[in-house]
Amino acid sequence: YDWGLPGAGILIWHIDESVIAANGPENKINDDPKRRAVDIEEADGSEDIGQSYYFLEGGYGSELGTWVDFWFKDNKAYLYKNEFSNSSIPNTKANLNNAVSHITINNFSDNNLDIMTFNYLRGFYEEGYPLSLTADSSNTAYSIAGLVEDETNEFFFSCDSGNIYAAGAGGGGLFFENKFLIAKNNSSTAIISLALADTSGNQKNEFLFVAVKDSLYGFSLDRSNVGGDSLAQKLFSTGFNASIISPVVIKNDSIYLACNNDSIYALDFSGNIINSLSTVHGVADIAINTGSRLPDFTSAVDYAALAALNESGVDLITYNESTKTFSVSNPAGVDEFEVSASPNGQFAVVDMDNNGVYDIVFNADYGIYAYNLKGFLISGFPIKPKLLENENLVGTPLIFDADGDGILDLIASTSAGQVIGYNVNGYSLSDFPLSAGGGIETSPILTQLDQDEGMELMVVTSGGSLYAWQLALKEDDPQIFWTQSNYNAANNVLSEDKLTYKPVTSSLMPSNRAYNYPNPNSGSYTTIRYYLNEPASVKIRIFDTAGMLVDQFSAPGDGRVDNEKKWDVSSVASGVYLCQIEAKSDGGSESKIIKIMVIH
After folding, report:
1. Rounded distance between C-alpha atoms, residue 350 and residue 370, angstroms
2. Which residue has the higher pLDDT, 262 or 575?
3. pTM
4. Are 385 and 422 spatial neighbours (Cβ–Cβ below 8 Å)?
5. Sorting pLDDT into bands at 50, 70 and 90, what band is 6?
6. Which long-range contacts link 450-454 to residues 24+ away (Cβ below 8 Å)?
7. Which of 49-53, 411-415, 426-430 has the largest mean confidence?
8. C-alpha angle 31/34/39, rounded to 5°?
9. CB of 76 within 8 A of CB of 82?
10. How far apart are CA 322 and CA 540, in angstroms?
11. How many CB atoms neighbour CB 192 within 10 A?
């Protein structure tokens, strides 16, 4: 394609390394015309090169390229605008689901001189990133971000090899500018978790704690006390007579962790065991998040979180993978409900619908799910992004309100290397999806990396590359609710804030929250949904259009949440039915009528 050089213009090639990795051994990197590994970006916006045209077809003669495929100032092609960007034709988006690359090449000069010029911008990346930190692992076990000093954050992550890395503002290392390895764990077992501890309350994390199978290690983050090998000083190693099944949790001046002998251990910052509590339910003021990373995991609890959910105290929320059920324990008892999809990581506990009541949010394989504490899906969920074959969501969704409008936003990562963003109404956030250029196995992290006006989004790939993007979030504008897998760098997801209930309306049963889905219904069931501002006794009656009673039954009446009841329509005739939802409480009664269409 260099027949016109010099003098014709500039050629731009798109290199897709994922195709090279997949098809290179068979020498088939360009066999798929729709996904070439080495593809020329034709400036005229028409993909002609490599095609086959008949004599009378419009593209005839362009199969090997033409002069309008070059980039230069006076290109007269109809779609040409002297810019190669996210919005041009062609554009700079990645092949993977059109992820935004944030590459802009514009202002190409004339092609009538020996030298041509253009402007190049790779926006949105944080200065110094992305980094390729390690090639010693096939996947990444755990990652956190936390304050280290000067009110900036460092990003820590571990690999299967047991090595631990850290990077911060400007892409520099924790102790030394160009050295990212800070600690080594010589065990062949994967690291379960990392945790940071601020012992003095001065916004500086002095300690790093690492859990590996049946041992806990402590390291100093004091920059003046780095060893001769340029690594963090190892402070202690404490062994247990059982396997660790939870991330390390930091609360005040203590370290907590759970083992598969049904015990929670409390240790001081020197690694001394100061207390042993039987059962995972034995600690009232810390959050133990148990995870099933180990093959000998025996606890019935796969994930757990403590939160100050109501006026009466702290509630414990747990998830059991074997039964696919959540349990919500509170002073009044235990509520259990089954979910239709399993979490792929720790769940978040956030008020998603802004009614003053906490909800449970998690990533499943193919969607982001949000349930209220009675087990009903929040309206608008699940959010199901467009994914590739064999691609799934991983880790925990990050949750924040970018502009303070009361509409929450979510960010999640995928196994194929995407970072996606949606609001609770299912609309994609601007600048998303992002592409990390490699597989991801952990949650992204939202943090303040360098004391600027915006927040940074960070993610580590399974190959050990670290990406950081500058988000358009000013610290005084967004509300940040969930920033990383276990809420914060101490892995303590205890919510200190008790929410105040916000009635949707003054009525017992808001009319705009009473409906059924799907509607029309062509299956065996339709689900009747309604919201109650306070507990009530609910009766549902179904009538045909002639006013004859077809069915009637009682339904749930929990207050402050959406309630649901399935109606079996397998034995009723096709047609339109009137559904009366009647709710009676101590404060009065209300009745709503909705129309249900049944199609067989």
Report:
1. 9
2. 575
3. 0.79
4. yes
5. low
6. 450/126, 450/127, 450/152, 450/168, 450/169, 450/170, 451/150, 451/151, 451/152, 451/169
7. 411-415
8. 75
9. no
10. 34
11. 24
Q: Label residue 278 left, alpha or beta by phi (over 0 means left) and psi (-120 to 50 means alpha).
A: beta
Tell me whether strands 119-122 and 454-460 are parallel, antiparallel or unpaired. Answer: unpaired
Confidence of residue 409 (pLDDT cuts 50, 70, 90): very high
pLDDT tens digits along 321-355: 888 888 887 666 778 899 999 999 889 998 888 88
Q: What is the C-alpha to C-alpha distance for residues 473 and 86, in angstroms, rounded to an integer?
A: 21
C-alpha distances in Å from residue 482, one per residue of 289, 411, 465, 492: 15, 10, 23, 12
Residues 450 and 481: beta-carbon distance below 8 Å: no
CA distance 432 to 105: 20
Answer whether 590's CB lies under 8 Å from 507's CB: yes
Residues 6+ apart with CB under 8 A from 105: 12, 71, 83, 84, 85, 92, 118, 119, 120, 121
3-class secondary-structure state, position 192: strand
Contact present, 344 and 291 (Cβ < 8 Å): no
Q: What one-character-per-residue DSSP string does 284-307 give? A: SSS-------STT---S-SEEEEE
CA distances from 101 to 81, 423, 433 (A): 19, 21, 9
Q: What is the DSSP string of 13-30?
A: EEE-HHHHHHHGGGT-TT
